[in-house]
Design goal:
By secondary structure, the protein is α+β, with helices and mostly antiparallel strands. The chain contains 3 helices and 11 strands. The termini are far apart. It has helices spanning 12-22, 28-36, 89-95, and strands spanning 5-9, 51-54, 59-61, 66-70, 73-77, 81-87, 97-99, 104-107, 120-125, 133-135, 140-148. It is globular, with a radius of gyration of 16 Å. The longest helix has 11 residues, at 12-22. Helices cover 16% and strands 32% of the residues. The protein has a 4-stranded antiparallel sheet with strand order 2-11-6-8. A 3-stranded antiparallel sheet has the order 4-9-7. Strands 1-5 form a two-stranded antiparallel ribbon.
């Protein structure tokens, strides 16, 4: 197996800033406890394709509710790879848990953004029943798969990324 990436925690300062922008009711001491307990993504078995991402917080989502999870994670990867994020299969089946952008696309150059490449995951409980999705701290809630990609022969992209959600091609 080719080794092409490494997961890391973002800085405490950026984690606190991002966390407070999502959950302004929290205090820094609580957030630092979440930060200290962040678990880096890992595969469950030797032949798993996906790296499980673990929630830094307890949360529950009722039908049609959504949440942004500040994972505290960033990834450094070879330039010809991309990390794709998906909900865990079991959560999709039980609760129709969805990533709001369907599939999260983490490009290699996101690592160098001002936010340190902080991977944020926005989820919705899209259940057609009244099921409540409960996730505990350090429980896997989504998975990431690395894929190699190619470019066209006439590609001439030279722009530099700086940001996350929707930061490229915004006018």
């Amino acid at each position: 197996m080719q080794k092409i990436s490494k997961f890391e925690k973002i800085s405490k300062e950026n984690y606190i800033r991002d966390f407070l922008s999502i959950f302004p009711e929290k205090n820094e001491d609580e957030i630092l406890k979440y930060y200290e307990n962040i678990t880096l993504p890992k595969r469950a078995t030797k032949f798993s394709a996906g790296y499980d991402f673990f929630s830094p917080i307890d949360f529950l989502l009722k039908k049609n509710e959504e949440i942004i999870i500040p994972t505290g994670i960033r990834v450094h990867m070879n330039n010809d790879f991309v990390l794709l994020l998906f909900p865990r299969s079991s959560l999709g089946i039980k609760f129709r848990l969805q990533l709001n952008n369907t599939v999260g696309v983490i490009d290699a150059d996101y690592y160098y953004s001002d936010n340190e490449g902080h991977i944020l995951v926005k989820l919705t409980n899209d259940s057609i029943e009244e099921k409540i999705c409960k996730i505990k701290q350090n429980e896997a809630f989504c998975q990431g798969i690395f894929l190699m990609y190619g470019i066209t022969e006439d590609d001439c992209s030279s722009e530099i990324r700086n940001g996350g959600f929707g930061s490229t091609n915004e006018k």
